[in-house]
Design a protein that fits this description.
By secondary structure, this protein is an alpha+beta fold. Helix content is 22%, strand content 26%. Helix 1 crosses helix 2. The longest helix has 15 residues.
């Protein structure tokens, strides 16, 4: 249980940019860096924080399986193919020198062979500019859909935009290469040979964002 909690914190820190992919970090260092992270719980119906919920101990995945704490997603809105979602969602505020710099949101959805679980970090200034993306659990094909773990691919997300000027979710994993963020802000390189996984990444982002 301790190792599972540390691994979750490590992945949140990776999305926040405090830990690099592949970097070996001790448990003590993870706990030290995690002091910059403030977990919160959000009511998805109202957009308000739930102040009476233990944000540290809240398990969004478990809540999604509880009929009393979740809702069925209408078929036409279930872009991520997950069928149910929790009524309350976790969010993580990333501070640096006393100021919130990023917001990290959990996300999950269907790929080719599995449900992918990850985190996306948005710049707190505009809640639009992507600052990091991490997948921490999946069973996609190594070398194909499994390339969601590739540090080079994850680095291509930094600087892209999640929403267009009208507030519509626009970020997409395209088929083939995308330009740099300043020229092609709404698209990211597709995963070679992994069309369904690439589409799954787009779909889950469009659902959760």
């Amino acid at each position: 249980a301790v190792n599972k909690a540390l691994d979750k914190k490590r992945n949140i820190l990776m999305a926040a940019g405090f830990v690099k992919a592949g970097e070996t970090v001790s448990g003590e260092r993870i706990e030290e860096l995690y002091k910059n992270i403030e977990p919160r719980v959000v009511n998805l119906a109202t957009g308000d924080y739930e102040e009476n919920i233990d944000a540290v101990g809240y398990d969004q995945r478990r809540a999604a399986k509880d009929l009393a704490r979740s809702m069925a997603i209408p078929a036409g809105e279930d872009f991520g193919g997950i069928k149910r979602r929790a009524n309350l969602a976790s969010a993580y505020l990333v501070s640096d020198r006393g100021k919130v710099r990023k917001v990290i949101l959990p996300m999950h959805g269907k790929g080719l062979w599995s449900t992918l679980y990850g985190f996306i970090a948005l710049d707190a200034k505009d809640i639009n500019t992507i600052r990091g993306l991490v997948y921490y659990e999946h069973a996609e094909t190594p070398g194909l859909g499994g390339e969601v773990d590739n540090p080079n691919w994850k680095a291509k997300w930094v600087g892209r935009k999640a929403f267009d000027e009208r507030g519509r979710v626009k970020i997409t994993v395209r088929k083939g290469p995308a330009g740099p963020p300043d020229q092609d802000p709404y698209q990211v390189d597709g995963l070679s040979g992994a069309t369904i996984t690439s589409r799954g990444v787009t779909n889950m982002l469009h659902f959760w964002l």
